[in-house]
Every structure is written in C-alpha cells, then in structure tokens.
Amino acid sequence: MTYYFTLPGLGGSDENHWQSLFESALPNIKRIEQGDWDNPACEEWIKTVDEAIDGYDLSEVVFITHSLGGITFSHWFNKYQKKIKGALIVAPPNLDVAPSELGLDSFLPVPKNQIPFPTILVASTNDPWADLDASKSIAESWGSDFVNAGALGHINTASGIGEWPEGLKILEKL
C-alpha cells in the first residue's frame, strides 16, 4: 500500500491548492505539518519530515512536494539518505535568486546530488520563482524526470488549476 505525504512550501497550502485537493482525493495521504509555515528553518523542517515518516515502510512512501517543500525534500534526502518509493516535486524555487527578506538562507545551498529513486520534477514556463532553465538544471542534477507543465505560473492556487488532474496523472507514473 502506498502512503502519500504532502510537503507544502512557504506559507503552506490553502484549501483550494491542488495539494489540499489531492489530500481529499487520494487514500492513505497525510500532510506534513511544519511548526511555522511563514518562518521556515531548514533543519527544523527536515527533522519534521523525518519524524512524520517514522514507522512507515519507506519502500511505500511517496512525497508530493510543492515549492519550498521540494527543496526541503532534497535537504531531507541529503541528510538522512533514506530511500523511499518516489517523489513528485512541483515548482521548486530557484533560491539562488530569491529575495533575502524571505528568510530562506538556511535552505542554501540547495543539494545537487543524485537521488537514487524515482522522482519527477514538474515546472512551469512562467514560474516567477524559477525559470525553466533553472528547473531543468535541478531536475538533471537530482536525476529527476522532467515535465514542462506549460504556462501555469507557480503551479499553485493562483494558477487556477483546481484539482489538477494532470498532476494526478503524473503522480501515477511513480
């Protein structure tokens, strides 16, 4: 049985975000709740991720990440080196160009090592947080399959994608 864990980004995911809607649509799914969605600290966030999956059969765990959740996932893997079934990584931001006032410095540098299990990185052609070339580059360094989702902005609530059935189809590939 597959266990899904959503990892939202900065600010969390509101009730209309595709991650929240996935949580209503998929069985065996749980959001990893961070202590402070608005003031992220990398070490705290990755510790929360590791604690959330403790006791699960890791060969059946799939992460569904959005934005900073994808960067958190990469740091979690880099620190703990635990293999899971796979990860859907949606719209990871390019932190090298993120404004410093967002307080994301604890997530730098972003790990660039290969991830030895299936991952799919989905990016948009007009994401204000990462241009397509930066997204392709991180996908290549992580060994992720790359999906160009077209012009969907940051692939969030503001993108107007609702339940995002295309995202569910991509998830099925894992």
TrEMBL record:
InterPro entries: AB_hydrolase_fold, RBBP9/YdeN. It comes from the Bacteria. Keywords: Hydrolase. GO terms for molecular function: hydrolase activity. The keyword NADP does not apply. It holds the Pfam family Ser_hydrolase. The keyword Metal-binding does not apply. This is Alpha/beta hydrolase. It comes from Plebeiibacterium sediminum.
